[in-house]
Design a protein that fits this description.
The complex is a heterotrimer of chains A (310), B (327) and C (349).
Chain A: H1 6-40, H2 43-47, H3 63-94, H4 98-113, H5 116-127, H6 149-173, H7 177-185, H8 190-201, H9 203-219, H10 222-227, H11 243-247, H12 253-260, H13 269-301
Helix pairs in contact in A: 1-13, 3-6, 3-9, 3-12, 4-6, 5-6, 6-9, 7-8, 9-13, 12-13
Chain B: H1 2-6, H2 11-47, H3 58-67, H4 82-113, H5 116-131, H6 134-153, H7 156-161, H8 173-197, H9 201-209, H10 214-225, H11 227-243, H12 246-251, H13 275-281, H14 289-324
Helix pairs in contact in B: 2-14, 4-8, 4-11, 5-8, 6-8, 8-11, 9-10, 11-14, 13-14
Chain C: H1 45-49, E1 101-112, E2 115-126, E3 130-134, H2 141-148, E4 158-166, E5 169-170, H3 176-182, E6 183-186, H4 197-208, H5 215-228, H6 232-235, H7 248-260, E7 266-270, H8 278-291, E8 296-300, H9 304-310, E9 313-318, E10 321-327, H10 328-333, H11 338-345
Parallel strand pairs in C: 3-8, 3-9, 6-7, 7-8
Antiparallel strand pairs in C: 1-2, 1-4, 4-5, 9-10
Helix pairs in contact in C: 4-5, 4-7, 5-7, 7-8
The chains are: A mainly alpha (310), B mainly alpha (327), C alpha/beta (349).
């Protein structure tokens, strides 16, 4: 290396700086948020609902946003999981005619590449139709409000669909052929094989996909800002027990952080930091979970697992 | 009928059902394009394609739309949204260009030069960067970087120089581009690393046996062999950068202003606005018909751009294939 | 150089005396008996009409009733020569006196962790000679070859003792890139880069020069290398076509052209023909014969017949030790060590 040309040495230095620099930035973000979290996060914040008050800095926590996040993740995955499983199974196991399979795969790639703001505004377009008025609120002027948990959850399912689909499809494609052949030799139909043999075999891939999907859902802000109505607390609409919650508006951790920062009302940056720390902790925890699942599957089956980083 | 559902399904019925459900996704995508295009139609009807061009005071045009009555006269639909397109392209292109260079260097570091212990730390760390939500990036930007730049980096004279046009408070091109680069680089690093490590070892060995050092072997043989993946990484990152809404809205200044490179250093501190951040800013005003069509037109443009990037990326990869396949 | 054509006659080779090969036996495997007293049903009419086939009279059943029938195949006919004999003779060299010494190994040992791959080998390699390293699998010949251009350093656990001198200079003192510019290597699997043919051959030339030479300066050098490798006639129309479209034999010749383009002093070849068909193998063996005029060539091969065809000097290695080193006639004709004799006879492999 002493006798390398200076040009090569410069590039080598650049490579080291780039690699270590990215790590430093990551460490700086985590450490800074940790510092702010230690400063501002109290256990009380997690368990108190937001309160309307003059001194925002003192009162109210973010229990409702937490509940909103959990509810949204639940709705999103509930809609996305069957869709993704059906699509992955159909493409890997059937997939006839092949042009149709390509169409479906391309559609999922289009959804994966669409910016979340476009998905959000598409959700607005759909749920502001009179046909879908039951899913949100009809405003006094006669227009449909179009913003509710169902609306946001439906669009969140589009966000979670690609990671789920890719993980399941990769899992199914890497199941060895002899598992299918053994089942067919025993006389099982294809669909029974899928239900009883293949899908249980890719459980950890599905778990990886779900975790990635949830991580994407709870980190997304644009859809929340457009489709969840922006009330600090969960405000159910109507009288049917669970359905009123779904029809109602609310907030999530992300919109809470946004609202408390100078870009929103900006009154309580401390609370924004606190909520941001909790959010970051969730996302990092989910990432660790993905690694853990991957490592456990690799040691169990002896195969290398590729994680879908989308 | 429930009985028929409960009995084991024959394969052809299962296949048709699964296929139908899968097609739902395609229907969804088509519906997305159709709905957005329909809502955006009035802008195209009143402006043709010239709403993409510069002209007039964009802020005034949008304000007109916001204040217009329920059935607005055609004049309200007048729109020249070039500053937004310019802002989107400016931030996106610079971020992708910077990010690609950094990602390539970092990938070369990870694949070739990092000792094994460092590699074990670096890879999860960079993956961590990829999963941080954009609102947290925006928060750090607006609470840390913006005040720092506004108070300590921009001098008073620079602020005075553009005072008549715009307020310089730290938000603007510099913070937007820096944070956007940090956001999209990890995606590219992951893809490029995977591509570099899947290039056959025999090429690297052959290059080293010809008397080139490890860096030159990497740059002259392995990196060109991974060109399709590098293109794919740039395209994916570009689509992400174009569509970034919340973070940009928090740190870009939210003023309908086109930063001018001819202003010199001040250019980096001037505020900008992108298509996506405008949609966030005005999303309450979706009730006003003219504004609604304008926002949907922006969304349609973003959708079209993302689609074009994907197709373009695929097309660029095609001619490179003839050198990749083993004869 | 003249070739002793009598050496081409297979009857004169000592191998003819071994028990499993007889002259003129072609492809037929016999149990020792010349006649095949097998039931009529196993012979076809076509066989009966061919000359040289034993009579089809159904004689007594052979003493081993379970012997599978033997069929004659087309190749048993007297082969027609592909080229007129004498036009391009096989590269069966006489022991040439060789040129100046290029590489010298002194007590070289290589170990990977606890495993000793090569134990204390001393050799001398001269220009104008082809040295063949032969021996059963795992005996360390590939490790020895790869250490000659310090490619073993790419393996973290490898360690080497002993000295290697290239033209009198210790290779450890040289920078590894400079060393590999003078000691080139061709691998078992052809590995042309995913570039055009021209870029492949010009690769080393571009990388090793101070300032990047332009295409016009490189063109004659590239063409010369391709000609020396015997590939130019086949690719002259399409030097810019992708290298990966060539056939296996052409790719290997391209790798040879790429290796000899910067005019190295020594060429190392690690079983270069093992992945190729016989015609390509023959072409490359001819090539080696021509190349050794300007280079020293070291070739590792599993194929004893190839070693006899191609090499001037032979080094036989067994489990890391250099058992015997001498000229080809000597090692194959009158081996000094019993183990060598057993190996070249085929007693073990």
């Amino acid at each position: 290396m002493r006798t390398w040309r200076w040009r090569d040495r410069l590039v080598l230095a650049g490579a080291w700086i780039a690699g270590l620099g990215l790590c430093t930035i990551a460490a700086a973000i985590v450490l800074y948020m940790g510092y702010r979290g230690v400063q501002y996060l109290r256990p009380g914040l997690i368990f108190e609902s937001p309160q309307v008050s003059q001194s925002q800095a003192g009162s109210g926590g973010f229990l409702d946003p937490l509940e909103g996040t959990a509810l949204l993740a639940l709705i999103g995955i509930t809609i996305a999981l069957p869709l993704a499983l059906c699509a992955a199974v159909w493409i890997v196991e059937y997939g006839r005619p092949s042009w149709l399979a390509r169409v479906v795969e391309s559609s999922i790639e289009v959804v994966a590449g669409t910016p979340d703001i476009v998905i959000a505004i598409f959700g607005l377009a759909i749920f502001q139709m009179s046909l879908l008025a039951p899913f949100s609120v009809r405003a006094s002027g006669g227009g449909v409000f179009g913003r509710s948990f169902i609306a946001a959850g439906a669009m969140m399912s589009l966000i979670a669909l690609p990671p789920l689909f890719v993980a399941t499809r990769n899992g199914l494609q890497s199941t060895p052929v002899h598992m299918r052949e053994a089942a067919f030799a025993l006389g099982k139909t294809r669909i029974a094989t899928i239900r009883r043999v293949l899908l249980p075999g890719v459980r950890s891939d599905i778990a990886t996909g779900v975790t990635l999907g949830v991580s994407r859902i709870i980190g997304d802000t644009a859809i929340i800002l457009l489709l969840l109505g922006g009330t600090a607390r969960l405000e159910p609409q109507g009288s049917v027990p669970i359905f009123n919650l779904l029809r109602g508006t609310g907030s999530t951790l992300t919109s809470y952080v946004y609202g408390n920062s100078p870009a929103g009302e900006g009154l309580a940056p401390q609370k924004a930091y606190a909520a941001a720390v909790v959010l970051l902790a969730f996302v990092l925890g989910l990432n660790l979970l993905v690694d853990f699942i991957g490592r456990r599957q690799a040691s169990a089956s002896g195969l290398a697992v590729g994680s879908a980083i989308v | 009928m429930l009985d028929r559902l409960r009995r084991p399904w024959p394969d052809d019925r299962a296949e048709r059902t699964l296929g139908a459900v899968s097609l739902l996704i395609f229907v969804c995508v088509v519906a997305m394009v159709v709905f957005v295009a329909l809502r955006a139609w009035p802008i195209f009807a009143h402006n043709g394609l010239s709403w993409l061009l510069p002209g007039g005071d964009l802020h005034g045009q949008i304000t007109n739309m916001v204040n217009a009555p329920a059935n607005p006269p055609p004049a309200v639909y007048h729109l020249r949204a070039w500053p937004l397109i310019y802002g989107t392209l400016l931030s996106g292109v610079i971020a992708v260009a910077l990010g690609l260079g950094i990602a390539l260097l970092a990938s070369i570091f990870i694949v070739e030069f990092a000792p094994a212990s460092l590699r074990r730390i670096t890879i999860p760390t960079i993956r961590l960067l990829a999963s941080v939500p954009s609102v947290i990036y925006g928060l750090i930007g607006i609470l840390v970087l913006v005040p720092f730049i506004g108070n300590h980096v921009i001098s008073a004279s620079e602020k005075a120089s553009v005072q008549t046009l715009v307020q310089l408070n730290g938000t603007g091109v510099l913070v937007s581009v820096v944070i956007l680069t940090v956001m999209i680089t990890p995606i590219m690093v992951a893809l490029i690393c995977e591509a570099l490590s899947s290039v056959p070892v025999s090429w690297r060995e052959g290059a080293m046996a010809l008397g080139v050092n490890r860096l030159r072997a990497m740059l002259a043989v392995t990196v060109p062999a991974a060109r399709p993946a590098i293109v794919a990484a740039a395209v994916l990152a570009g689509a992400r950068a174009l569509g970034e809404a919340v973070m940009i809205q928090m740190v870009s200044g939210s003023v309908f202003f086109s930063p001018k490179p001819t202003d010199g250093v001040v250019f980096f501190f001037e505020p900008l606005r992108t298509l996506a951040s405008t949609i966030i800013d005005y999303n309450d005003g979706v009730g006003a018909p003219a504004l609604r069509s304008a926002l949907y037109a922006f969304a349609l443009l973003l959708l079209f751009a993302a689609l074009t990037l994907s197709v373009g990326g695929y097309l660029v990869k095609l001619p490179l294939r003839k050198y990749q396949t083993r004869g | 150089m003249s070739f002793d054509k009598t050496l081409l006659n297979p009857k004169r080779t000592p191998l003819a005396e071994s028990s499993w090969v007889t002259p003129d036996s072609g492809c037929r495997h016999t149990n020792g008996a010349e006649q095949h007293p097998l039931p009529n049903a196993f012979w076809t009419h076509a066989d009966e009409q061919r000359p040289g086939v034993p009579s089809t009279a159904p004689g007594p059943i052979a003493t081993e009733p379970n012997v599978p029938p033997v069929r004659t195949i087309v190749l048993d006919r007297t082969p027609t020569p592909v080229r007129p004999v004498g036009e391009r003779v096989a590269v069966r060299p006489v022991h040439s006196p060789g040129g100046p010494e290029r590489l010298r190994l002194e007590e070289v040992s290589i170990s990977y962790g606890q495993k000793h791959a090569v134990k204390s080998v001393s050799l001398s390699i001269h220009q104008g000679e082809v040295l063949a390293l032969i021996g059963p699998s795992g005996c360390g010949k590939t490790s020895l070859l790869r250490t000659l251009n310090r490619l073993t350093e790419l393996t973290p656990s490898a360690a080497r003792n002993g000295r290697i001198l290239l033209d009198g200079e210790d290779v450890d003192e040289l920078e590894d890139t400079k060393l590999r510019a003078r000691v080139a290597m061709v691998f078992q699997q052809p590995n042309p880069f995913p570039m055009s043919i021209f870029d492949n051959v010009a690769f080393a030339l571009r990388e090793q020069s101070r300032k990047r030479p332009g295409r016009r300066e490189l063109q004659p050098l590239v063409i010369d290398a391709l000609e020396r490798a015997g590939l130019y006639e086949e690719v002259r129309e399409d030097l810019d076509g992708p290298a990966l479209r060539l056939s296996g034999g052409q790719q290997q010749r391209l790798c040879i052209a790429r290796a000899i383009a910067p005019r190295p002093e020594v060429l190392l070849m690690d079983e270069p023909c093992s992945a190729l068909d016989p015609i390509s193998t023959n072409t490359i063996e001819q090539l080696i014969g021509e190349l050794r005029r300007e280079l020293a060539v070291v070739i590792v091969t599993h194929n004893l017949a190839q070693a006899r065809r191609v090499a001037d000097k032979v080094a036989f290695m067994y489990l890391g030790d250099l058992v015997e080193y001498g000229t080809t006639e000597q090692v194959f004709g009158e081996p000094r060590a019993t183990r060598t004799r057993d190996y070249v006879r085929g007693t073990f492999g």
